[in-house]
Amino acid sequence: MIRALAIAALFCAGAAAVNFRNVAREAGLTDSIPNGGAESKKYIIETTGSGAAFLDYDNDGLLDIFLVSGPGGSNRLYHNLGNGKFADVTKEMGLEHSGWGQGVCAGDFDNDGYTDLFVTYWGANVLYRNRAGRGFEDVTAKAGLKQDRVRYNTGCAFVDYDNDGHLDLFVANYLKFDFANAPKPGDNSYCWYRDLPVACGPRGLPFDRNILYRNKGDGTFQDVSESSGIAKPSHNYALSVLTGDFNHDGFTDIYVACDRTPSILYINQGDGTFSEEALPRGAAFDDNGKALSGMGVAAADYDGDGWTDIFRSNFSDERETLYRNRGNAEFDDVTLAAGLALNTRFVGWGCGFLDFDNDGRKGLLVVNGHAFPEVDRLGIDVHFKDRAILYRNSGAGKFADISGSAGPGILEKHSSRGAAFGDYDNDGAVEVLINNQNEPPALLKQSTKPAGNWVLLKLEGVKSNRSAIGARVRLWAADLVETDEVRSGGSYLSQNDLRLHFGVGTARRIDRVEINWPSGVHQVETGLEINRVVTIREKP
Amino acid sequence: MRVISGIFLLWALSAQAQEDALEKGIAEFNRGQYAAAQAALEAAPDTPQRQGFFALIRAATGHCDSAQAELAAQLEQGGARELGRLAGLALTQCQIAAGKYDDAVAVLARLRTLYPADADVLYQCARLHMKAWNDALFEMFQKTPNSFRVNQISAEIFEIQNRYAEAIPEYRKAIEKNPAALNLHFRLGRALLLESHSPDNLREAQREFQAELALNPTDSAAEYEMGKVFLVNQQPQEAAKRFERAVSLTPDFPEALQALAKTRLEAKQYPEAIVLLQNVVRLQPANESAHYSLMLAYRNAGRTADAASEQAELDRLQKSPQGEFTDFLKRLGEKAPKQ
Fold first, then answer.
1. What dihedral angle (degrees, nearest 10) is formed by the CA atoms of A511, A513, A514, A519?
2. pTM here?
């Protein structure tokens, strides 16, 4: 009885304590990130950028920040100084680069112990090899990743699809676009939004197809899109990428949120090929069988049944979509039942599950902002700059929108795109980095520490890839059982902390952790301490 | 003998010239060169075809009165198929221009029987209804500017254009003027839901559907919308009751049947959901959404072969070129049939 009261008190205290503030300015993130027109946009390319990343590039145990930029500025790398402040180290680290930057993903592709970066562009992608935390080297050509034509690359993820210990690379492609031939606002029926001439597309613009590069283990990659079946879906406008072993067969599958077309679920066949099965598995459409405008995508076992579920953010006048994994990668759209059908006026982009109160249940944050600045002329309740949405996981498969009482950081209005989730000061509370179009980024941090206990697991592969991408973790703490997986990419064209954060409520220790490594190794750890970062190295 | 053959040659040449004149006349008509067509046809033999084209020229140059009898005759003659089609279209054009909509409706009905998949005929039908709609609307605004119907029709126009924020106050004005009018509360509630699913809109929409049901307790569409509100508010059992009532009031109400099926799916009552969805696809074989739900119901029930068959049907339907237009029509959204 006492224990029940204590838990109730903890949750009540937690509920009162959620107060996200935007600390970007005090953290030193003051530079605006350019991305197309701020008042109006002529081309679709201006609407889709860009992503954000949390990564620890110098292995000092503190998450650094990388922001992708549109033309008119460079991508930016900020070093975490450890005192809540960040310093711009873009130039000295060799990351100055300008262009129509879209997405970012991170992973140690050469297994040297340092996290590398891949940045996607409309134009040509760039692979940056991390030189022992002292700088980044553009190895795109050397690695065989030069593209033979201009492509509209969007989301990306490092993934070890063949479990050979070397990270491969998946790159989503949105559509075929070139300035010379692109229609202008109002040119055809796909260039209008509610009687306003706006940037055309994606409908009416030609499709492209996604790409899979296999890591040959010698620092080079080979395009296996055709032979792997990745190139087969050819009528989708692909944006964000989510990886995960959704059917627990030991091989990583790939989900792609697609705009205005059915989303894609590549099921890994375990023989180097993929089969696209989103439709029969219930993850292509909404529950009416309609393709929505998928933007961002996130994964979590939100209902604690051990299976990874999928959340997808969509366009305005559409519901967000929560797909519950009913087992073996068969999904049901449970958006309505989960209480996520209320917010239909937002265009959602970056999204992620996070246990912001450390109660052992992952809530959900979505950042928003309409694609077209022109929408503000309509005087309706749909805006180019809009607030974020924060949902508390109320248990029993339900979410409650607590945006109005979750602090000023949630209510600030921006035209947000990428969002990355990570604990940059290792205090057990997950922060959110948001890339806002033509504004400085936002850095959402809770003003008070969450009441619940926590643990951050940093996994290190030995036989598996060094970043442990694809490792699946099941954790037991008191009466809590939680599941998560190390992922590259995700959210909207962004990269979250590669470490796994678990809130464990009132539990005093972590009873048990089971890890399924991509190599096939099953590892069990017991009796871990709480409220700290715990590094677990793959056992031989 | 040479004289005879010379006469024959002259006759043949003259007949050929007349044939050429007819062809030239038709070609000029098709190019829209009516004076040249008239001149060429004057030299053509006097046939029903020639008379038909004379009538078409008169209609095209604004002399409908003298053309209509011949056009009507050409339509019914059943001779040259293309000429009959053109005559019918020209006749309706004349009738629409003269404001004789009832006559035009009758001719178009005949044309649709004779030429069931003709784009020009269907276009003319759409045009006729649009013109009649515009005229009636103008008359309504002119003669009864303060009636609730003016607000209602304004709201409906805004709704079709997705301008819900403007539709909602018009519905409210209409209700203020005539709170007992059927369908107004329903339309307002639905516009509120289309605008947003905010808690305020959900509450107000629910009130409006209740008001509609108070006026007409057998309104299955209002019951169905009530169910949808309960679903969004995470009250699936209450929603199911509403859908059940909607179906009991209108057994062939596809949307309500499908919504009820989804509540059964959610409750893992797969056989019952399957029966309901089979009913929907029987009523609406091209309903993609119902086929999708049925595919998932079969999948969840372990009926893999049936699920694959539904997936194949869905693939076939989704390739339909009419998809987007059908979608547009769905948005115009009238109540379910037979209500």
1. -160
2. 0.86
